[in-house]
Design a protein that fits this description.
The complex is a heterotrimer of chains A (513), B (488) and C (499). Chain A has 513 residues and is mainly α. Helix content of chain A is 75%, strand content 4%. Chain A is built from 22 helices and 4 strands. In chain A, 64% of the residues are buried. By secondary structure, chain B is mainly α. Chain B folds into 2 domains: 269 residues, no CATH class; 205 residues, no CATH class. Chain B has a two-stranded antiparallel ribbon with strand order 1-2. In chain B, α18 crosses α20. Chain B is globular and about 70 Å long. The two termini of chain B are 29 Å apart. The mean pLDDT of chain B is 89. Chain C is mainly alpha-helical and 499 residues long. Chain C has 21 helices and 2 strands. A two-stranded antiparallel sheet of chain C has the order 1-2. About 1% of the residues of chain C have low confidence. The chains are: A mainly alpha (513), B mainly alpha (488), C mainly alpha (499). At the B-C interface, α18 and α19 of B face β1, α5 and α6 of C.
């Protein structure tokens, strides 16, 4: 295996697919869809292949590829994979083809759509695998462009504003991120994440930045922080999200919430935390409040929505805030003695699990909303439906499972992640866990409202006429996702096994300020 | 010391050739060419005149620079020789331009007068004795007064000539008065003796009055502000070839004459270049005149709509720059000044030549009359571009190096703090202003579409040759400025 | 290397031939122009292939020109000049390709175009300040005519404003140079001679003289607030001219700042450094915000050029190896990107739709009707936003890194510019090409637009290729640039921090 540049293949096969699509203008619609799906599946196939030779006991990077690239800037072409990356690549591998299938009926400019989608997928995989700021940032930024066009050209009526806001917010964050890294590079001359994490761990980075004097070291931290906070998004930087998620076409919403939002959390875990343990520790309490704000207010905002897609979008804010809550709790507790590390390990594995689970459940929910929309001629208000369960029982069942996974019903995958997070946070910062519970209740409330208003009761609204049940295409998308929800609900160790050593090592060697 | 008549004879060969040529033109026109048409008579007169100028040129070329002649009445140093040659070249170009001039009733007289003027001018270039200076100046001036009023079809011509004559006469009176005072103070009319005497005596009030008188005449001759009032009217009213001669050869000779007068003659009374109030002398006065010319010329030119008046104000501005060259000539030698004056002359002859040629195809008064020149005559448009851009000081044309050498020399007099230096900075700043009005001219010629009914312009071969030669020389001296700068 | 002077001569010869041939056939003129521009570019590439990077200017020709004044015809090149020479070749070749449809007075058009190119080559090759200045002015004059004759919107105003600003700037430069030259006793115009001469001046004079030379050049580089000529000029200019103006001619100013002004007086620079840097960063943000407000697509790009040139000036003002290297890289990058943007807007869109108003374009949905133009504009826009993978990114990154080292606040404000750039570029993309369908134009307006020609595609590919190549391998240029920044003369102002 070592002779095959597995990680490069992971990144570049989707892009190669995009190139192939670009070069074959004469292709029929069906043929190009199959071709695009094939290229999109490559991520899953390759990720599973790497799973085979992945050393679960190791905490370091594996399958590393490192070549000198721009000597004058000290930039290397550096790809590597650890448990965290593998988890997210697997998630991408699952959701990307699902998203493509969700757009199977996309008639307008199908070739261009698929092309952009593959570009987006490759960029996302690249973000999870790149270990040098320079090309990590290439993937990070280039993912925006296809996403912009996917929203802009195939989105809903307000797509123009949604896409613009989405990109401007994110690029705004990235500008600060870039500035932060410019400062880091100016101070250390290094752009490699591995090297920078080492410097972050032993304090040299902090010392070098402190040489700037004034409030500049804090500004650097803030810059990098903002870049990721907008991407996740962390409350109150989330305002772009509901509009973007709501206006994007279904497949793209799935990808956005399932994969792109993970890029932000990944950035927190991979970059911000190792590089700035000190400032994070110092700022942990305000950050905890922000995360709590996202978790609680996100859920309450979702409750107030009448547009189902916006509701699911706000629920994403809520779920992702749990991930950050756990991370900030760990940061807040850094430096405290035993038994913190055990709680920290729980919180962190919960975070990682939550990343994966939220991808599955939110992806599935967006797909379900998309189905409702497709069957009702574009309506998706919560009052537009009623009694869908009687009209489409299979669909209702699958959607219900996704919902219960999302609200954390034990036995389904969502439960394990949130449970671990709460357990960990309780052990680290009890009050935060207590406040966050509010979010749990609200989530349960709005999801159940959704369930009740749309699926129960007499058939009404759009569901009063002909309302087709799940088609084979729908089953092809939803069944694997639902199956995984069950599987991971029962056997979470399938995932935790991948990253447990990593988590343990993080928790035991929690970078000290 | 017995007078060296043979040397004098050799030295005055060019003048003799011109005078003989002028007489020949008149004589042949009265006899052989009498029956020909006006155009034909002009052509023949120009041929003969050109031959005379060529002969004079050959004389100058072969004569070399023997130094003082005839007991230092004449000074044939490199400056004198170069100026004489330059004047002859400019005269030749003027004759070429004159081929295109319209409405000439007396072609032979016109050509003869040009030759007489040239005679005076080349004599000015070498004169080193006050009496001869005055004679040469008057010979040139009287001829120029006449040719300035030669076009009797246009009333403004008469006005121009009269104005020129009146102002010229007053200036001559001033000059003569100044000379007499100098003679009175120093007891000599020979520049070397005058210089020696002034060095001994130092400045005295009488001498200062004399200097003032001389400078007034100087200002008149070179059209420097505030003695410039005649220039716009003459440039506007005179026939184009006459204006060309007034603006080019006359200016070149004038600058040479006064540089010789001021530096080798009155150099001891120059005063200081270090600051304005370092003591009496003519340098501060020249500095004031230069500043006035630069400002007035450039700023008033912005408001002009008449092409010739615009050229007149640009000429005033250029005079200001050349006065900087005069100030610097004491330290840097005459090379920058000569380069500037001669290449400026080429560009001006050329510009008036284009006007002259364009007048054959219709009116050419206002700047807007040039509209569409690129279509009516690409050749004229191209030449005009070269001349105007050279006047604007765009490299690689000669005008750029002229400015550059003069300003560099002025700055070296004492840095930017000294008057000459600050004037150089002012002049550079104003050259950016000047670009505006030059571009206005070129915009009409090269950008604007021709007005309805505008005819293509046919250019006479002789004029075309003259314009081409002038443009070529401008490019040549711009690319190889050392050819002129290395003469001294 | 010894071939490089021929870039000047080739272009001038091409200009003459095009003028002569153009009187009869526009076709002949444009082929001559293509051959001479392409030939000159090939010369720069050939020289680049054999170039050995080093800290000194490598002399190519050195003849006395005006011996009495110490002026020399001295042509030389180092990594910095080579970078810009290659850019000039690229931009001019692409410019000719995008001018393939010029038929009115074609001979004169290409003659002026090539004269401009020759002047630009001359500036980048000059190692004598006066020669530098002479070529600089040669480059300025043709601009006026290119805009005034072949331009569009408000062309005479734009052309005159541009010419006057340029000349005012160059007059300041000339004044400063002569001042120093005179102070040095008139020995010569070599860069080192001038630096020596300037060092003899009292400090106050050095400060003033530096300001003359630097701000004179900075006018042409579009430094805020001396930039107002740039948008009007660029908008009025015909496509090829705006490509060359924004792409290369503005670089003349920046190059002059780096090559002539900075080493001239380290004392003067130390005094002015902070004001210059602040002007640069304010310009970055201000021009970006103005671009955000424009209703005319070409104005958006015109202001974006000002904003991007602000980065160049910031890189120079920060004055360390990194920032200066980034500045030169940004000169190259912006040259390519601005060329591309102007080509799409001026040639591909305007020549077909006869409008550049975003409001009109919005209704046209150009991404359907001119997909190629839209694709190229998107790529150029992305590159212009400074997104990684394109040449703007390494350039702006290194500038920001360098600026941070000198004064973090500069980098912080500059980074805002990245954000603003994203905003106005996206707006332009969105309104210009991806307008909403519900405002579909009336049927009469939807007549098919002429297809994109081969020449346009070729030109676009050249420029896109260049920006991607340098985006992925910026070290290709940095390896030339960085050693050149180590030259003793530049080391007097650039602070260490070897990269």
């Amino acid at each position: 295996m070592s002779s095959v540049p597995l990680l490069s293949l992971l990144v570049f096969v989707p892009w190669a697919g995009a190139l192939v699509l670009a070069c074959l203008p004469g292709l029929g619609r069906r043929a190009l869809r199959i071709l695009a799906l094939g290229f999109s599946l490559s991520t899953l196939v390759l990720a599973l292949a790497s799973l085979g030779s992945f050393d679960r006991a190791s905490t370091g990077y594996q399958f590393v590829e490192r070549h000198a690239w721009i000597p004058s800037l000290g930039v290397h072409y550096h790809l590597g994979m650890d448990g965290l990356s593998l988890l997210l690549v697997l998630l991408t591998g699952l959701l990307a083809p699902a998203g493509l299938l969700a757009s199977w009926r996309q008639e307008r400019d199908a070739r261009f759509f698929n092309l952009l989608y593959l570009l987006l997928q490759g960029a996302a995989v690249g973000v999870f695998l790149a270990l040098d700021f320079f090309h990590w940032f290439i993937f990070w930024e280039l993912s925006l462009i296809p996403a912009y066009f996917l929203i802009r050209l195939w989105g809903g009526p307000a797509a123009s504003r949604a896409a613009y806001q989405f990109v401007i917010y994110t690029i705004g964050g990235s500008a600060f991120l870039l500035l932060g890294f410019a400062a880091i590079f100016a101070a250390t001359g290094a752009l490699d994440f591995e090297a920078l994490s080492r410097m972050g761990a032993d304090g040299t980075l902090a010392a070098k930045l402190a040489a700037l004097g004034g409030w500049w070291p804090q500004a650097v931290f803030l810059g990098v922080f903002l870049g990721f906070a907008v991407k996740v998004p962390l409350y109150p930087f989330h305002t772009w999200l509901p509009l973007a998620y709501a206006e994007a076409p279904t497949g793209v919403s799935m990808f956005l919430t399932g994969v792109m939002s993970k890029m932000g959390v990944y950035g927190f875990l991979r970059i911000l935390w190792p590089l700035f343990p000190g400032p994070l520790h110092a700022a942990a309490v305000p950050l905890l409040w922000l995360a709590l704000g996202g978790a609680v207010l996100g859920a309450f905002a979702a409750m107030r929505q009448t547009d189902l897609k916006r509701m699911v979008a706000y629920s994403s804010v809520n779920h992702l805030s749990y991930c950050l809550l756990a991370l900030f709790a760990v940061c807040a507790a850094t430096g405290r003695p035993h038994p913190t590390s055990e709680a920290a390990a729980a919180a962190l594995s919960g975070t990682l699990l939550q990343l994966f689970n939220h991808g599955l459940s939110a992806g599935a929910l967006f797909y379900c909303v998309g189905m409702l929309e497709a069957r009702s001629g574009g309506r998706r208000g919560i009052g537009d439906f009623g009694g869908v369960r009687t009209a489409a029982p299979v669909f209702a069942g699958l959607c219900g499972i996704a919902m219960f996974s999302s609200l954390g019903l034990p036995g389904l995958n969502g439960f394990i992640g949130e449970f671990l997070i709460f357990r960990g946070v309780w052990g680290l910062v009890p009050w935060a866990a207590a406040v966050a519970c509010l979010g749990l209740f609200a989530t349960a409330f709005f999801l159940l409202t959704f369930w009740q208003r749309v699926f129960h009761g007499p058939r009404s609204g759009a569901a009063s006429g002909v309302f087709a049940d799940a088609s084979r295409l729908d089953l092809a998308v939803l069944l694997p996702l639902v199956a995984l929800m069950f599987l991971l609900g029962v056997l979470p160790q399938l995932l935790t096994g991948l990253f447990n050593p990593l988590i343990t090592s993080w928790a035991n060697h929690m970078p000290l300020p | 010391m017995s007078p060296d008549y043979a040397g004098l004879f050799r030295a005055l060969g060019p003048e003799a050739a011109l005078v003989v040529g002028a007489l020949a033109v008149l004589g042949l026109d009265l006899t052989l060419f009498r029956r020909h048409s006006l155009g034909e008579r002009l052509r023949l007169a120009l041929w003969v005149g050109s031959l005379a100028v060529l002969a004079a040129g050959v004389h100058v070329w072969r004569g070399g620079a023997p130094g003082p002649v005839f007991g230092a009445v004449l000074m044939l140093d490199p400056l004198a020789v170069a100026t004489r040659f330059g004047v002859l070249v400019l005269t030749l170009l003027t004759l070429g331009v004159a081929r295109s001039s319209t409405a000439q009733r007396q072609p032979a007289e016109y050509v003869a007068l040009i030759l007489f003027a040239a005679t005076g001018l080349i004599l000015m270039a070498a004169a080193q004795q006050l009496l001869l200076v005055f004679l040469a100046l008057e010979l040139a001036s009287l001829s120029l007064y006449v040719i300035a009023g030669f076009d009797r079809n246009r009333p403004e011509t008469a006005e121009a000539a009269l104005k020129y004559f009146l102002f010229g006469g007053i200036a001559a009176a001033f000059l003569l008065f100044g000379f007499s005072l100098i003679y009175g103070v120093t007891g000599s009319i020979e520049l070397p003796q005058i210089a020696a005497q002034i060095a001994v005596q130092g400045a005295n009030p009488l001498l200062l009055v004399a200097l003032a008188m001389v400078l007034v005449a100087f200002g008149f001759k070179t059209a420097a502000a505030p003695f410039h009032l005649w220039a716009p009217d003459v440039y506007q009213g005179a026939p184009a070839p006459s204006a060309a001669l007034v603006a080019s050869a006359s200016k070149l000779a004038g600058f040479t004459l006064f540089t010789r007068l001021l530096w080798p003659g009155l150099g001891a009374a120059a005063g200081s270049t270090a600051s304005f109030n370092a003591g009496p002398g003519w340098l501060p006065a020249v500095a004031v005149i230069a500043a006035a010319s630069l400002l007035l010329g450039n700023l008033v030119a912005l408001a002009q709509t008449n092409l010739r008046r615009l050229l007149a104000y640009s000429a005033i501005a250029h005079s200001g720059a050349m006065l900087l060259g005069v100030m610097a000539a004491g330290r840097a030698g005459p090379a920058p000044l000569f380069y500037y004056a001669s290449t400026y002359g080429l560009a001006t002859v050329g510009a008036f030549g284009v006007i002259c040629a364009a007048e054959r195809g219709g009116r050419c008064e206002a700047i807007s009359d040039l509209a569409g020149l690129y279509k009516r005559s690409p050749f004229l448009a191209g030449c005009l571009a070269v001349f105007i851009l050279s006047l604007a000081g765009i490299p690689p044309l000669a005008g750029f190096f002229g400015k550059f050498t003069v300003f560099a020399a002025a700055l070296r007099l004492g840095g930017v703090a000294a008057p000459a230096g600050s004037l150089a900075i002012l002049a550079i700043a104003l050259s950016a202003v000047a670009l505006y009005y030059y571009l206005i001219v070129l915009k009409q010629a090269l950008v604007a579409k021709p007005t309805a009914g505008a005819q293509p312009i046919k250019v006479a071969p002789a004029t075309a040759l003259a314009l081409f030669a002038a443009a070529g020389l401008i490019v040549w001296f711009g690319l190889f400025p050392a050819e002129l700068l290395g003469l001294f | 290397m010894s071939l490089l002077p021929w870039t000047i001569y080739t272009s001038l010869a091409g200009a003459l031939l095009a003028l002569v041939a153009g009187a009869r056939s526009a076709r002949a003129a444009r082929w001559i122009a293509l051959l001479s521009a392409g030939g000159a570019w090939a010369l720069t590439l050939a020289a680049a292939s054999r170039f050995v990077p080093g800290p000194s200017l490598q002399t190519l020709v050195d003849l006395p020109w005006v011996p009495s004044m110490g002026v020399r015809y001295h042509l030389a090149a180092d990594g910095i000049s080579l970078t810009l020479l290659v850019l000039t070749g690229l931009a001019s070749t692409a410019g000719v390709l995008f001018s393939w449809n010029v038929t009115e007075r074609a001979g004169e058009f290409f003659a002026l175009f090539l004269t401009l190119v020759a002047g630009v080559y001359g500036v980048f090759l000059s190692a004598d300040a006066l020669l530098f200045f002479a070529f600089y002015e040669i480059a300025i004059v043709p601009k006026y005519f290119l805009i005034a004759v072949w331009g569009s919107t408000n062309r005479e105003y734009g052309a005159m404003k541009l010419a006057l600003y340029s000349f005012a700037g160059s007059a300041m430069v000339l004044a400063g140079l002569l001042w120093v030259y005179a102070a040095g006793g008139g020995h010569g115009f070599g860069f080192a001679d001038l630096a020596q001469a300037a060092a003899t001046l009292p400090r106050r004079q050095q400060i003033v003289v530096f300001a003359f030379v630097f701000f004179g050049f900075a006018t042409l580089a579009g430094l805020f607030p001396l930039h107002t000529w740039a948008p009007t000029g660029h908008v009025a200019a015909p496509t090829a001219a705006s490509m060359l103006l924004a792409g290369v001619v503005m670089k003349l100013g920046a190059y002059g700042c780096l090559r002539v002004a900075l080493p001239l007086s380290p004392v003067g620079f130390a005094y002015w450094q902070t004001p210059i840097a602040w002007l640069a960063v304010v310009g970055i943000v201000y021009a970006g915000l103005v671009a955000l407000m424009q209703a005319d697509l070409k104005f958006v790009i015109g202001y974006s050029s000002v904003s991007h040139m602000g980065f160049v000036m910031l890189g120079l003002a920060a004055a360390n190896l990194q920032s200066a290297g980034g500045a030169v890289l940004q000169m190259f990058s912006h040259g390519v990107i601005a060329g591309l943007l102007f080509a799409v807007v001026g040639r591909m869109v305007y020549d077909r739709t006869h409008t550049r108003q975003l409001a009109d374009l919005r209704a046209m949905q150009l991404y359907r009707r001119l997909p190629f133009a839209a694709a190229v504009f998107v790529i150029a826009g992305i590159a212009s936003m400074g997104l990684p993978g394109f040449s703007g990114f390494p350039a702006e990154l290194t500038i920001l890194v360098g600026a941070w080292k000198t004064r973090p606040a500069w980098a912080a404000v500059g980074a805002l510019g990245v954000l603003v750039a994203a905003a106005f570029t996206l707006r332009a993309i969105q309104l210009g090409f991806f307008g909403s369908a519900d405002k579909a134009a009336p049927a009469g307006d939807a007549a098919p637009l002429a297809p994109i020609t081969l020449a346009e595609k070729l030109g676009a590919f050249l420029l896109v290729g260049a920006t991607v190549l340098i985006g992925i391998r910026p070290d290709l240029l940095l390896n030339w640039i960085n050693p050149a920044l180590q030259s003793p003369l530049l080391q007097t102002v650039l602070k260490g921090g070897a990269s």
